[in-house]
Structure formats: C-alpha cells, structure tokens
Write a structure and sequence with these properties.
By secondary structure, the protein is mainly alpha-helical. 62% of the residues lie in helices and 0% in strands.
Length: 91
C-alpha cells in the first residue's frame, strides 16, 4: 500500500467520516487475518457503507494507529524500569 499523507485530524470531521463507530470498526479489522471471514465480511460491509471514502479513511486510521503506542508496550516499559530500579538499589 502506498502511504498517503493524510491529515488524521480530518478523521473525525463530519464531512470525512460522520460515524466514529465506523472508524472503530476499521481499527478492529487491523488485528484480523485478511484471509478469514472475520476480516473480509465486516470489511466488505464497511466498504459498502463508506463507498469511495473507505480507502482514504482506512489509510488515515492506519497512520493514526501507528502513531499511538500500544498499552502493553507502555506497561512492559514501565515494568522493566521498575525492575531496573529495584536491581540497582540491591532489592
């Protein structure tokens, strides 16, 4: 996929995507196997609902998600810092 420069702040403007639940549905697709019905059935419905806007919105969602750290990564980082502090103090 060619990376487009899309202003992700437009993602929630009414003219771009009036229903935030559709953006959430696209986010949920990211974790699915594209070869499975759990991916392509909802994806086909989203494409039908959003029409020509689907690919632009999908690209914006992917870019926005790539800029947001995963919560599990933050927890792991904090856990490692805590263990390092404890090890450094002879704990």
């Amino acid at each position: 996929m060619v990376k487009q420069n899309i202003d992700t702040s437009d993602l929630f403007t009414p003219s771009f995507c009036p229903q935030p639940y559709l953006v959430h549905a696209i986010c949920e697709l990211r974790g699915q196997d594209k070869r499975q019905p759990a991916y392509w059935q909802p994806q086909a419905k989203l494409q039908h609902t959003l029409g020509k806007r689907y690919h632009r919105i999908e690209t914006a969602v992917i870019e926005a998600m790539s800029d947001v750290p995963r919560a599990s990564s933050l927890v792991e980082t904090n856990k490692n810092k805590s263990v390092s502090k404890q090890a450094g103090t002879g704990w």
